[in-house]
Structure formats: C-alpha cells, structure tokens
Design goal:
Length: 157
C-alpha cells in the first residue's frame, strides 16, 4: 500500500509553497480566460471561479474517531501517493495534491490540484500521523494528543 508524505507544519514550510503554486496556476488560468473573452472587464470573479473549477477538485472527506485516534478518509481518485501530502498541526489538517496530466487545451501539461483543510474536533499529536493511499482513497490515522492534565479521577464509594 503506497505511503503518503506527512509534514509537520511547525517544522516544514511546504504547505505555504504548495498553496502558492496552486494559487498561481488558478491566477494564470483566470487571466487566460479573461484574454479569451477579449479582455472585457467586469467578469474577474467569473474567470477566477471558472479557473478554480477547472483546476481544483473538492474531495469527499469523512472523519470518524475512536478513543485514541482520529480517522480521515479522502476521495483521492486520479492522484498517486507521491502527489499527495498531509500537513498537520495539533488542531487542523490540510491535504494537498498536485497531479500533472496532458490536457486537451493546446496540448499542454496541466495540473489538477486537491486542497482540503479541516479543523479537527480534538487535538492530535502531529508526530503520530500515518497516511496511506488505498484504491483511490487516502486513509489517515492520527493519534489524539495526550493532555497533560488527563489523570484518572477516583470516586470514593
């Protein structure tokens, strides 16, 4: 089962550069749409949304939890494990994917991107997260953080 890269955002600035690349691609495509329309003003938002729709995919995400772990599954159809990265913080998780393919438009290389960010229902330990791609589904398991004040409370009977 292919393993997906986990990046601790506190230690790695990879998320910022990946998102910047994706935003640049959307910006460039929106400008191409503007030029294709004859450079007529008044449709910037329409061009931007059309470019996002063309280049970004909105995956189906499911989140569940056990006593010890959070489980996240993401529909990652069309992406290879090496094209996906999971960026983690104690309270949030961001999944970034960039897939290069040959497009119909001008016989160019095109990139389809997946970006999904979620706030988590409880803190996780960013150093204990595993992610694997199985049959087009990204499966992420994150250990819940141990809170320092979690001590058993004894009740006298």
């Amino acid at each position: 089962m292919p393993i997906v890269t986990i990046r601790n955002v506190q230690a790695d600035g990879g998320l910022k550069s990946a998102v910047a690349r994706i935003v640049d691609r959307v910006r460039n495509r929106a400008y191409e749409l503007f030029e294709h329309r004859g450079r007529k003003d008044g449709h910037a938002l329409d061009d931007w949304l059309a470019a996002e729709n063309e280049l970004l995919c909105q995956p189906l995400i499911e989140l569940s939890e056990t006593d010890r772990d959070l489980h996240v599954t993401v529909d990652a159809a069309g992406f290879k494990s090496e094209e996906l990265h999971v960026d983690v913080l104690p309270a949030s998780m961001t999944i970034v994917g960039e897939h290069e393919h040959h497009g119909k438009r001008h016989h160019e290389e095109e990139t389809r991107a997946l970006v999904a960010q979620m706030d988590l229902p409880c803190p996780i330990d960013p150093n204990h997260v595993d992610a694997k791609l199985r049959h087009h589904t990204l499966e992420i398991v994150a250990k819940k953080a141990q809170l320092s004040n979690e001590e058993p409370i004894w009740v006298a009977q």
